[in-house]
Each structure stands twice: as structure tokens, then as C-alpha cells.
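We store chain and fold; thus.
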Amino acid sequence: MKKPLSAIDVRNGKQGAGSVPDRAVERERLMLLVLRRYISRLPEKIWFRAMLFSVGAIAAAAAAEWVGPLIPYEADLEIASGSVGDILTILASSMLAVIAFSVSIMVSAYGSATSTATPRTIALMLADDRSQNALSTFLGTFLFSIVGIIGLSAGYYDDQGRIILFFATIAVIVIISGTLINWIQQLSTFGRMNDLIERVEQATSKALRWHGQHPYLNAQPPVEVPEDALPVRCDIASGVVTSIDMGQLQETASQQDVTVHLIIHPGKLIYPARPLLYLSGEGAKAADMQPFRDSILVEHDRSFDQDPRFGLVVLSEIASRALSPAVNDPGTAISVLDSGLRCFEVLAEASAEPKEAKYSRVHGPEIAVEDLFTDFFIKIARDGAGIVEVQQRVQLCLLALAQSWPDLFASAAADASRNALARALDTIVHKADTKDLKARSQKVADCCDE
């Protein structure tokens, strides 16, 4: 985990508007906020799952001696109890090789993703459940075998304990066999371009679905900020908002009898002079602003969780890399456009049935559809301005959205269509191609006029 941005000594003791909090209290609040975020991300860490599997495997090997005396009879399995040491030795040696091979494959896939797609996809690959389960199972099996071999060599197990260890080893072999089959199947696609696009699409669709159901971060729609509202500014070094604890904002606003006007959303770059939110109401002037700041987590890099725009940006980066002269792969860009179309369809379906706002004292920010289209379509249209098939697919995707959900997308789609057409006409000179693109763009514009 990267070192979080610190609110201590960044501004040499100068704070924004509001009272100056005690440094010890400020440090404690910041540590608790970062710790809570860190714990929530533990399941995404490879080492965490590997540690759990390893602890479980060691416990299973050690418990065989304790479980043995609980058997109500003495089983006559001398062959099994005598062969368990040989089986464990084979498992230990083979698993060590499998772990080394798996790690090398994963590192190679990460490097390939960085060079062929975009480095922003690495976070999704690191959080992949199947690769984490495979590596954790291999490591757990290795440690299970080592602990079992040590116990046998030290005379830790009696006859019943050795039999229990034998059956536990058989169970581990069954588990490792299934894991190996699944891992081999995954290796055929892990880190490939289609796999990367699908991962980003899934993460983006998840964020867009939540955004569609909660368009203002589950808060009230934005309203005009009162002139006497007090700004709450960032009091740390610049960074990117990755998470906003809306529940804490609501609770703090209720305690201090204020209304919160949140003007930033996850993904926004903030700096000391930029307001995060405004406070209005009777308690605004006497409000303690630090709890409001603590509700907003700032880190170095954007994440997919609460930031629907980030996923669209990453998709467009993959398309831009494919459209670069060094790669010249318009087919990948077209696949990305199809993926983005599906993401916007998810947003439209979720927006059709928004859920009731949960936080009554907070007015959330709005993410305009035009901004989402700029993050995705305009960037691809820019880098693929001279490639006819890419421009045709851009116009087709915009037409699909404008025709299917005109109230939500028609206006933004018409603007994006005109933008893409203008870029194409500056580069493409063949009359048949320009005529076709103009006709496609006109169809998108007609959806806006209907």
C-alpha cells in the first residue's frame, strides 16, 4: 500500500477556513480513516489471502495429532500411515516449482498489460480472485507439506495422528488438483487484451450502475450554494479523491446542524486552495470543519470503486494505445467502443430506476453525461480521427445510445457526434468516406431533434 498523503506539517501549520484542530486529534482521525480504508481493501491483496490459506494449512497439519485421539477406534491402516511422509515430500517439492512458475507467469502478465494496454489495469489484475486463490492454494499446500514432514520427522504424530494426516493429505491433493485445472484454464486468457478489456468493463459497469441508482452519491440533488455558505477547503497536499464517506458527512451535519453542499466527487484532483464542500445553516459559523475533511479520503491514484469516470478513461487509454502509429490496431479500438457502449447501457438501465436518497442533509455533486462522453468517445475520436472504421463505430455507438435512451443521451450524443465528425473531416479526404460519416452523424443529430 502506498503511503497515504499526510495532513501533518504539509502547510506549515496554516489551516483553511475554520478552527485549527489539535494536532494529536488530527493525527488520530487521519490514522483511523486510513486504517479503515486499508482494512476494507485487504481482500484485494494477494498476500492477505495467501496468509489465510497458509495459516489454515499449518493449523490443519498441526491439528492431526489432536484429532487422532478423538477417533473412537484404532484404524488398521499401516500402509497409509507409512506412506504419508513420501506423499508430503512429493507435494512439497512439486508445489515449490508450481509457485515459482505461477509467480513468473503473473509478473509476465502484469508487464504485458502495462506495455500493450495501460498500467491502470494492473490494479484489477492484482485483485483477481482466481489468481489469488490459485497462488494461495499452492502456497498453503507447500506449507502444509513442510509442517507435516517436520512433524513426522520429530515424532509429533502417533499412529492415529498419522492416519488423520494421511486423509488430510488426500483432501489437499483433491483441492490442489481442481485448482490446477482451473489455473491452467485461466492462464490461456490471463493478461490478454480481451481479458483486460473485460476486466475494465466489469469494474466500470459496476461503478456506473451504482452511480445510476444513486446519481448524487445517495444524497440530495445539487442546489445553488447560498452566498453566506462557508467553504471547507483541503488542508493536505494535493491528491485525488478516492472515496467519500457519505454516512459520516450526514452524521456530522446532523450533529452540527448544518447543510452540506458537496462540490467534488471521487476522481477529482484537489489542492489546498480548492473547496471540497460548503456549509450552510445556523450552525455553519461555529462548525468544526475537520470532521467534514476527514470524510473525504485523498490518495495518490484514482480507483474504480466510486469513480465511474475513471473506468471510461482507462478504456479510452486502451483504445488510444491501440490506435498509436506504433501499434496500429483499430480492431482493439472497436472492441473498446463496443465495451463502452455496454457500460453506458448499464448506466441507462440503472438510471431508469434510481433509489431514494438516503442522506437528507447532504447535497451531492452531479456528473454530467457530457463529461462521461468526453472521457470516452471524444478521446477515441481524437486518436482515431484518420481511421474510417473507428469513426464509423463511434458514430454507430452514439446513434445506438441516442435512439435507445433519447432523454438521457440524445443531446450529449449529438454534441459528441459533431465533435467526432469535425475531427474526422480534418484528416479523412476520400469523398465516399466523408459522405458516409456525415450521414451517420446526421442520424445522431436527428435523434436530438425528435
